[in-house]
Amino acid sequence: SLASVLGRKMRLSRDRMRLIAPVGAAAGLAAAFNAPISAVLFVIEEVIGRWTAGILGSVVLSAISSVVVMRWFLGSESMFRIPAVEMTQPLELIAYAVLGVVGGIASVVFASGIGILRPAFKGLPRWTQYFQPAIAGLLIGVIAVLGAPQVMGAGYEYIDQAMHGQFTWQFLAILAGLKIVATLLSFVSGTPGGMFAPTLFIGAMLGAAVGGAERYMFPYLTISPGTYALVGMGVLFAGFLRAPMTSVFMVLEVSGNYSIIVPVIVANTFSYVISRGLQPIPIFDVLTRQDGLELPSMEELREEDILQVEDAMQPVEGPVLDAEETVEKALQHVDGSRGEDLLVRLSPSGWSTVTRDRLRALASEGKGGAKLGPLLLVPRIPYLHPDLPLETALRYIERWKLVPVVSRANFQQLEGVVSQRSVLDRYREFGEG
Fold it and tell me: Is the pTM of this model over 0.90?
């Protein structure tokens, strides 16, 4: 928000405004969680959806600057007292997979609750909107009075306590459920307190509960049950916010210990796959659609098939002429073949085109014995490679009827051609499929 306001005050162009908002988001997230790498990944993964040198450099610089300033004022201490992290039994990965399954289901419950209750509350009479926040606050206060004050606020201190085994696993599971209820009440009543902190809290409680239950049932399997709370934070991040890469690096940055990368990846993968399978539409897309906005889904863009030039490539219909041959010889080559537009191979390299009518006109002018190359109306045309994005061809197909597609290893090796018709037909087939 601050970045957008600053951009408007400075009267930046629309293109620069698109850049400055993600830069501000990276700065805020990096400072809030002391995690610059995770902030950069989240912005690229969820806000922008693509990697470009200009954007990446700005986002990285913003995140690092933000963390440097934050550490100057608050110090470089970690948000949590990280417990000893060990995993001595390969079988323990099964427990982390179970944590991923539990986290995935909890993510779906959390997201579905918001998706169902938010429009229901917004559909109530307008006058009730003045009382909804107060009623939600009252209900959250009741939860606290009845024995769970931990659900109020960000709860970072309770995450720290959960990592060090200061709660029973049964109470941790209850806290995770009550935090979901409290966050739902706060969010749908019009007083959202954010998504990131509740996600970390719920994930940590679920992780610590699974670790405690495993320690209770299999006391010799795990040495550090507090590690499950740490891994659990990433599990809900992956399942609820649908940011799998960010979730892995968030846990690694917070812990400062890369020895848990395998459990983190296992648990987060299970959570992400289950969450996506049970609820295909991510929570951010659900919210924007409820508000009447159809924005492009970053998740869909990441996984969308990218058409390449080779998908629209066609074989050459007529013969390929040589710029060193005479006009008369070229006419002999094209006699009986199909296609009005013909490719010409230049010497020592390059490509051009000529039409049958042009060849006949040159012959009628008495230039049948002249070399074809100097008589071409178009000295040289661009060429493409099969692995280029198909959108690259859009720059050329309107001006040139045929664009050659050549091998990267040998620019003189013709693989095929693309035309305006072949490109548009391929896009049409892709859209219908």
Answer: no
Q: Considering only CA atoms, which of 232, 215, 213 is closest in space to residue 224?
A: 215
Residue 266: its pLDDT value, please? 92
CA distance 232 to 98: 11
- The contacts of residue 311 (CB under 8 Å, 6+ apart) are 390, 426
Long-range interactions of 65-73: CB distance < 8 A, separation 24+: 65/27, 66/26, 66/27, 66/28, 66/30, 66/31, 66/36, 66/39, 67/30, 67/31, 67/34, 67/36, 69/31, 70/30, 70/31, 70/34, 71/34
Burial class (CB in 10 A: 0-12, 13-18, 19+), 255: buried
d(CA 31, CA 207): 25
Q: What is the pLDDT of residue 88?
A: 63
The confidence score (pLDDT) of residue 15 equals 66
Question: At residue 319, what are phi and psi to the nearest 5 degrees?
Answer: -70, 155
DSSP 106: H
404 near 388, Cβ under 8 Å? no
Gap between the Cα atoms of 84 and 93, Å rounded: 17
Question: Which residues are CB-contacts of 302 (< 8 A; sequence separation ≥ 6)?
Answer: 45, 49
The span from the CA of 324 to the CA of 313, in Å, is 27
Q: Which domains does the chain have, with CATH numbers?
A: 2-74 (no CATH), 92-296 (1.10.3080.10), 309-432 (3.10.580.10)
Tokens of 271: 């959570």
Burial status of residue 35 (CB atoms within 10 A of its CB: 0-12, 13-18, 19 or more): buried
77 burial type by CB count under 10 A (0-12 exposed, 13-18 middle, 19+ buried)? exposed
Measure Cα distances from 115 to 79, 128, 204, 366 in Å. Answer: 31, 20, 23, 77
What's residue 405's pLDDT? 93
Cα separation, 107 vs 271, whole angstroms: 8
CB 39 within 8 A of CB 247: no
- The whole-number pLDDT of residue 105 equals 94
Model pLDDT for residues 174-191, shown as the tens digit of each residue: 999 999 999 998 888 877
Helix axes 261-278, 92-122, angle to 10 degrees: 40
Q: Is the peptide bond before 389 cis (omega within 30 degrees of 0)?
A: no
Please name the helix (run of DSSP H) or strand (run of DSSP E) that holds residue 60, with its range, or none.
Answer: helix 53-74
Neighbours of 5 (CB within 10 A): 10
Whole-angstrom CA distances from 34 to 38, 160, 295 are 9, 16, 30
Spans of the chain, pLDDT less than 50: none
238 backbone dihedrals φ, ψ, rounded to 5°: -70, -40
